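Problem 12. The chain below contains 203 residues. Write out its predicted structure in token notation.
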Amino acid sequence: DSNDDIEDVSLFDADDDVSRRSKKSKIRHPVASFFHLFFRVSAIVVYLLCELLTSSFIACMVTIILLLSCDFWAVKNVTGRLMVGLRWWNQVDDDGKSHWIFEARKVSAQGSKTSSEAESRIFWLGLITCPMIWVIFAFSALFSFKVKWLAVVVMGVVLQGANLYGYIRCKVGSRKNLTSMATNYLGKQFLRQVRFPGFWKPS
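Solution.
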């Protein structure tokens, strides 16, 4: 079965086997784990404190965009591959057609190393949380009429949101699978409410 060659890269799943959990709890790539959070957290900190550090909007904008660009490159090309065994990229064929490729690490016949549970948690928490913060910044800048900051915030949403979308596609599979998963989840919630109106029982 071809599905047996694909490693299960968990988002927040706990491992039932205690011995495997002890092995997977170690951070195998501390440098990659550090830079996975460093650039994106630094961009957020600079955005929050830039008006206190300097009065130059251009200096703040350039610094934040550089940090966001470094984060996009590091997460897309390095940390995703090392920490969770996922990667995505764009490829142009000989006919000039663009193809988006989403891959998960394959296990070798000898049994390659599985992803560390600690690294997986760090990766997904950083990948999901930071774009949500930039979305909050976007609404804040919009409603407070800080138009000059809106372009910077939108850049943060786009760059970090692109990595989030790409790695979710790597984890879940094709867009059809992503849509079917969402539909199945909503269908189950609807049936549960119909069968037990006003009562929710955790699965």
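Discussion. Strands lie at 86-92, 98-104. Students who got a different answer should revisit the alignment rule from Section 12.3.
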